[in-house]
Amino acid sequence: MKKTLVALAFSVGIALLTFPFGCYYDNEEDLYGPPLTNCDTTGMRFSVEIREIMAQNCDACHTSSSSTPSIFTFETHAEVEAVAKSGKLLNRINSQSLPMPPTGLLSACNRAKIEAWIKAGAPNN
Ligand code: HEC
Fold first, then answer.
1. What angle is formed at CA 47 by the lines to CA 42 and CA 52, rounded to 5 degrees?
2. What pLDDT is stored for residue 9 in this prediction?
3. Cβ–Cβ contacts within 10 Å for residue 113, how many?
4. Is 83 in the pocket of ligand 1 (CB under 6 A)?
């Protein structure tokens, strides 16, 4: 009986030790798909490329004049920068379960553009 308990405790210990490491590793390709071709993400500007993507895909809900004005808005650079720097922006535009826009993910190229802008420090350019 004692032996069984020791063996049990031992296997539970091993399982707990290996589980978080054994099952979790990710690489960029699994998360974001294969590297993009024909998608120029250099020199992304908030006032041009990023605003254009948002105008087409986000403004319908994320502006004060939208149908859902109670949620936060993306009208100024400061507002978008805050969501970008908190990680929420990338999180939601790449989310399978809670995507933004809610109707489905943006194109891989548009997501890569937003990501490039965030990686550059989400500048007000
Ligand atoms: C059809 C309306 C709609 C559109 C279009 C839309 N959103 Fe949203 N968004 C919402 C609503 C409603 C919420 C609040 C509920 C939630 O978090 O799901 C939200 C929440 C979010 C959040 C989470 C903020 C937080 O504090 O957790 C982010 C980030 C976001 N949206 C980004 C975007 C971006 C970027 C786009 C465009 C690419 C977009 N949304 C397009 C309706 C929309």
1. 85
2. 57
3. 22
4. yes
List the domain boundaries for the chain.
Answer: 28-119
Q: What is the pLDDT of residue 73?
A: 86
Distance 100 CA to ligand 1 centre (A): 5
Atom 18 of ligand 1, residue of closest alpha carbon: 98
**CB of 11 closer than 6 A to ligand 1?**
no
User: Who contacts 55 (Cβ-Cβ below 8 Å, separation ≥6)?
Assistant: none
The finding on whether 61 has its CB within 6 A of some atom of ligand 1 is: yes
The verdict on the CB of residue 114 being under 6 Å from ligand 1 is no
**Per-residue pLDDT in tens (0 to 9) along the chain, 125 residues:** 566 655 655 555 445 555 555 455 566 666 555 667 899 999 999 999 999 999 999 998 898 887 775 677 888 999 999 999 999 999 999 999 999 999 999 999 999 999 999 999 999 99
Between the alpha carbon of residue 124 and those of residues 5, 47, 49, 89, the distances in Å are 62, 7, 12, 16
Q: Which atom of ligand 1 is nearest to the CA of 88?
A: 29
